[in-house]
Design a protein that fits this description.
Elements (H helix, E strand, L loop, with lengths): L1 H4 L30 H17 L3 H5 L28 E5 L6 E5 L1 H15 L2 E14 L2 E11 L3 E13 L13 E2 L2 E15 L19 H10 L7 E4 L3 H12 L4 E4 L7 H4 L31 H15 L2 E3 L3 E7 L6 E6 L5 E6 L1 E4 L22 E4 L13 E5 L3 H12 L3 E5 L5 E4 H9 L10 H9 L3 H18 L1 H9 L12 H9 L3 E4 L2 H6 L4 E3 L4 E4 L3 E4 L4 E3 L2 E4 L7 H8 L1 H7 L23 E3 L4 H19 L11
Parallel strand pairs: 1-7, 8-9, 8-14, 9-10, 14-25, 15-24, 16-17, 16-24, 17-20, 18-19
Antiparallel strand pairs: 1-2, 3-4, 4-5, 5-7, 6-7, 11-12, 12-13, 21-22, 22-23
Helix pairs in contact: 6-18, 10-12, 12-14, 16-17
Protein name: Flavin-containing monooxygenase
Keywords: FAD, Flavoprotein, Oxidoreductase
InterPro entries: Auxin_biosynth/cation_transpt (IPR050982), FAD/NAD-bd_sf (IPR036188), Flavin_mOase-like (IPR020946)
């Protein structure tokens, strides 16, 4: 199949530019008797010495020396696929920069260390688990975990040391134990991550409330949630998984937070969507902070079951929530930086809350439903809906339905129609990346997130330790393997005219989801419906106009419809931000979703351009991991240990 074969050649692909392949390293030989713990311990020892002396050159000597930049995330840039330059990365999450940064190349890392090494005051480095990993035949590294302290924090790190053939350009290390035979070991990648703040541990385990409570708990909870005599420190707008996770993290750190949710019940953001909705991620990927799903939980969670879980999560963790509450507007005092947020409660009463921090947790659905405009739409005599307005297939028994879109929602809705005996056609506007949930996605996730995988917190650190600039290459190779296990499905889809792609820069699902959160389908059976013709497919022309009875296409064809459903996603969440904060703040903040050229999110999980304003969104996995980072920043500001200077160069 031409579509698939062109992605599975042995020629290096441009997405692989960020990989430290053995050919780039001089084709070194890794000794069979290599003492990886000895090498790792020597590297940590040298890093500790250099950090204690704030010796930037000493730290750089432990890293690969390279000025190479992939440019892989530039839309119009294609990196070299055949160059022999070894890339080097340092990714930091808050521990050294109070930001989320990826530094690529020695010059960028040098500038970062010169600016922050002395301020951070790294100390007490301790080596953790060490392993020799070979994810692909031409990739090998010593992976080591470590912990360390900064002036204000307790942090973790992961480094990957690659073997470089000793030469004039890559001489031996000054530390003898980093040289083995004709090989010297240098870090191709370092990841550093803030875990906790010194003196302010989470109230977990032995830190939990140890006092008995006889007959007082119910009234205490009522008063805590009512805010009759106080304002919260943090206002969280939105009670989906992103809002709940941040609230749980803040509560563990002793920060008073209130969630306002416009729906009647927590979980309604899942409960009130179409009946056929089900998570396509696996349960091990989706655990929430402090309260993982029980071992009896299904691998794929039905939306309504998740909705009930979110509601029970609030009760179990005693989070403060006002449901049926709408935020009307929010303004910031320029002198004090305090926010005045006006909310309207279920009984119609209004309350102005004075808060130091606001977390926007309204997710991608914070944007308005996007419906593309076509001539003649006002002439269509049938029913026209966005997927957010759709409930269940039985609402349209005996009707002809056209679903515009070919992503996850479109497939779920089409399958539901077929299962209820309803005539449905999927109109595919552009190509889609398809990966099977049962085989392909498991191949992608199971190494970290599975029944036999590492603990979730360890898996999260490992996952985060790969910068997206490097992950493009790993993901491209993974996508080839996934395409092979999904070959029968992909060939079947190609045969019936379903347009396919291999994701952004041919790197599969990961970067595509991170950049746009659209354009893919995690196949849980819908693809076979398309292949078998149960879901009719229209993909050979674009829409010209709507008619009274349906859709007319540019190639002259007509498609009759009684019901048309747009599965076309959402506008930017900035539209909701604009309605709450006004035009100026929305324009100043700009985009909060997607990736910048470093591969980091444009505006999520960190303070935006206004003091005390944050944006929080993502799937359950992202919210679980990054919610702690949001909470740590807020706690650091409340305790006046946030140094106020993000490294922005």
């Amino acid at each position: 199949m031409e579509y698939l074969e062109k992605y599975t050649t042995s020629t290096p692909h441009p997405a692989e530019a960020g990989l430290p392949t053995l050919s780039k390293l001089g084709n070194p030989t890794v000794p069979d008797n290599l003492d990886i713990k000895k090498v790792a311990a020597a590297w940590i020892d040298e890093l500790g010495k250099a950090a204690a002396q704030t010796n930037v050159d000493g730290v750089l000597a432990l890293l690969v020396d390279s000025d190479f930049k992939t440019g892989i995330l530039d839309d119009d840039h294609i990196p070299s696929a055949s160059g022999n330059v070894i890339p080097v990365y340092w990714r930091d999450f808050l521990s050294l920069t109070w930001d989320f940064r990826t530094f690529e190349g020695t010059p960028a890392i040098q500038n970062f260390l010169q600016a922050r090494l002395q301020i951070a005051k790294i100390s007490n480095l301790q080596l953790g688990p060490v392993s020799l990993d070979r994810p692909f035949p031409d990739l090998v590294w010593i992976q080591l975990f470590f912990t360390f302290e900064t002036e204000v924090g307790i942090a973790s790190g992961i480094a990957r040391l690659v073997p470089i053939t000793i030469s004039a350009s890559q001489p031996k290390s000054l530390a003898d134990d980093l040289n083995t035979g004709d090989v010297t070991w240098r870090a191709h990648l370092v990841f550093t991550n803030l875990e906790d703040l010194k003196g302010f541990p989470e109230n977990l385990g032995v830190k939990r409330n140890g006092l008995p409570n006889h007959g007082k708990w119910e009234e205490q909870r009522r008063r805590e949630n009512a805010y009759e005599d106080r304002d919260p420190t943090v206002l969280i707008i939105g009670g989906g998984q992103s809002g709940l996770d941040v609230a749980a993290r803040l509560k563990a750190l002793g920060v008073d937070a209130l969630i306002v949710e416009k729906n009647k019940r927590i979980g309604d953001n899942w409960r009130l969507r179409y009946d056929a909705l089900c998570l396509h991620d696996t349960v091990w990927f989706d655990h929430m902070p402090y309260l993982p799903f029980p071992s009896t939980w299904p691998v794929y969670t039905p939306a309504k079951k998740l909705a009930n879980w979110l509601e029970s999560y609030v009760d179990a963790l005693e989070l403060n929530v006002w449901t049926s509450t709408t935020i009307l507007d929010a303004k910031q005092d320029q002198k004090s930086s305090v926010w005045s947020a006006r909310v309207k409660k279920e009984d119609g009463s209004e309350r102005t809350l004075k808060v130091k921090h606001i977390v926007m947790a309204f997710g991608l659905k914070g944007g308005t439903a996007y419906v593309p405009k076509y001539p003649g739409m006002d002439q269509f005599a049938g029913t026209m809906l966005h997927s957010t307005e759709h409930n269940k297939a039985q609402d349209h028994l005996g009707k002809k339905v056209v679903v515009i879109g070919a992503g996850t929602s479109a497939h779920d809705i089409c399958v539901d129609y077929v299962d209820n005996g309803i005539d449905v056609t999927m109109f595919q506007r552009s190509s889609t990346y398809v990966i099977s949930a049962l085989k392909g996605l498991r191949l992608l996730l199971d190494r970290l997130y599975s029944e036999n995988g590492p603990p979730t917190d360890v898996a999260d650190r490992l996952n985060a330790s790969f910068p997206n600039l490097m992950m493009a290459g790993m993901a491209h190779r993974g996508a080839q393997g996934i395409a092979e296990v999904d070959r029968d499905t992909l060939e079947g889809l190609n045969r019936v005219g379903f347009k396919l792609n291999m994701g952004f820069k041919d790197a599969g699902l990961y970067l595509l989801a991170s950049r746009t959160a659209s354009g893919y389908y995690l196949d849980v059976g819908g693809s076979q419906y398309v292949i078998d013709g149960k879901i009719k497919l229209k993909s050979d022309s674009q829409i010209k106009e709507f008619t009274e009875t349906g859709i007319r296409f540019e190639n002259g064809g007509d498609l009759e419809a009684d019901v048309i459903i747009f599965c076309t996603g959402f506008t930017d969440p900035g539209s909701t931000m604009r309605s709450i904060f006004g035009d100026k703040i929305a324009e100043d903040v700009g985009e909060t979703f997607g990736l910048n050229k470093e591969g980091e999110t444009k505006g999520l999980y960190k303070q935006l351009k206004y003091k005390g304003l944050y944006s929080m969104m993502g799937n359950l996995s992202m919210c679980r991991f990054y919610s702690k980072h949001v909470a740590l920043q807020i706690k650091a500001m409340e305790e006046r240990i946030f140094d106020g200077q993000k490294y922005s160069k």
